[in-house]
Amino acid sequence: MNNQELYLSHAQNELTEFIIYHKLAMREKNPENRALLEKLSLQEKSHHDFWKELANGTEIKPRQLGIWGTVLLRDILGVTFITKFLELHEKGAVTEYQKLLPTIPASHAERFRAIIKDEEFHEQSFIGQLKEKRIAYIGFIVLGLADAIVEITGTHAGFLGVTGSTLIAGVSGVIVGFAAAISMASASYLQAKQDTEKSAITSAIATGVSYLCSVICLALPYFLIRTMLIAFATSTSVGILLIAGFTFYGAIVFDRKFWSEFGEAVALMLGTAVATFFVGTIVGKIFHLNAGSF
User: Fold this and answer.
1) Pick from 164, 282, 177: nearest CA to 220
2) Is 266:240 a contact under the CB 8 Å cutoff?
3) From 137's CA, which of 3, 48, 111, 126 has a CA 20 to 30 Å away?
4) For 167-186, how does the pLDDT look when each residue is reduced to its tens digit (9 = 90+)?
5) How many of the other CB atoms lie within 10 Å of CB of 285?
6) Measuring CA to CA, which residue among 76, 60, 53 is closest to residue 19?
7) What is the CATH number of the domain that holds 85?
8) Could you tell me if 193 and 107 lie in one domain?
9) Is 47 in contact with 38 (CB distance < 8 Å)?
10) Cα 287 from Cα 62, distance rounded (Å)
11) How many domains does the chain have?
């Protein structure tokens, strides 16, 4: 890629992000968040103008799919996640910009250094100031998801050692999960009552609903598949995907390391499954339980 193509590529990236931040700002009800997003938008616009000038004023169109897709995901995942996810690209861009610095014309070098500084510090500072209500309840949602995955996978693994009936395993998981969801929601309610900044009812709902959603996802394979081992493997795979999803979300929002947290959560789930499988097998032998007993 020659310099002209490189300039146009960076110009397109910055133009796309300028429009995204502007659209995010227009959808934001919180005035402080709106102001921060507009600052980010204007900053990206100035970066686009810089690259456009280096490209001799060549006009370029933004990536429309990226714009509409990102704005749509904002309503699902939240503005904090979207902006931090966008900035992952900027972190890589800083390294690329620093390598590119010697090739920038002397007349533009000072402005380019300012852009690098923007990418390294200013944008992260703006994003760090965003306030979003849903972020306060992510801990309760993750609590519900994580606890359900470990507990219900363990329940299903226990029945794997007791019975060959996928229907019994699925129904048992739903019943245990429903009771546990109420228990977890109650615990979250009592915990949140000690925190004046959070709604106890919202906290309870976030925990209970996320728990029930996990239970349904994990139990569904047992109602659709008649082979116990295949149903268990499918349900466990669903659990791993759920873990990957909420771990990735938390890694982006809270600047955590994805792989270490993901590995720990999966190890806990699988370790619990192995332990309960052996317990189920032992109990099944002691009480002479088998597929024919049901």
Assistant:
1) 177
2) yes
3) 126
4) 999 999 999 999 999 999 99
5) 12
6) 60
7) 1.20.1260
8) no
9) no
10) 67
11) 2
| CA angle in degrees (0–180, nearest 5) for 138-144-150 | 130
Do residues 79 and 130 touch, judged by C-beta distance below 8 A?
yes
227 and 264 part of one domain: yes
110-166 pLDDT, tens digit per residue, is: 999 998 888 777 667 778 788 888 888 888 999 899 999 999 999 999 988 888 889
Task: Check whether residue 138 and residue 40 sit in a common domain.
Answer: no
DSSP string, the chain: --HHHHHHHHHHHHHHHHHHHHHHHHT--SHHHHHHHHHHHHHHHHHHHHHHHHTTT------HHHHHHHHHHHHHH-HHHHHHHHHHHHHHHHHHHHHHGGGS-HHHHHHHHHHHHIIIIIHHHHHHT---GGGGGHHHHHHHHHHHHHHHHHHHHHHHTT---HHHHHHHHHHHHHHHHHHHHHHHHHHHTT-TTS-HHHHHHHHHHHHHHHHHHHHHHHHH---HHHHHHHHHHHHHHHHHHHHHHHHHHTT--HHHHHHHHHHHHHHHHHHHHHHHHHHHHHTT--GGG-
pTM: 0.86
Contact 153, 273 (CB under 8 A): yes
Question: Is the Cβ–Cβ distance between 142 and 243 less than 8 Å?
Answer: no
Same domain, 124 and 259: no
**Helices 138-160 and 166-192: crossing angle, nearest 10°?**
150
Q: Looking at the structure, tell me whether residues 144 and 85 fall in a common domain.
A: no
Q: Is the CB of residue 173 less than 8 Å from the CB of residue 155? A: yes
Domain that holds residue 143: 134-293
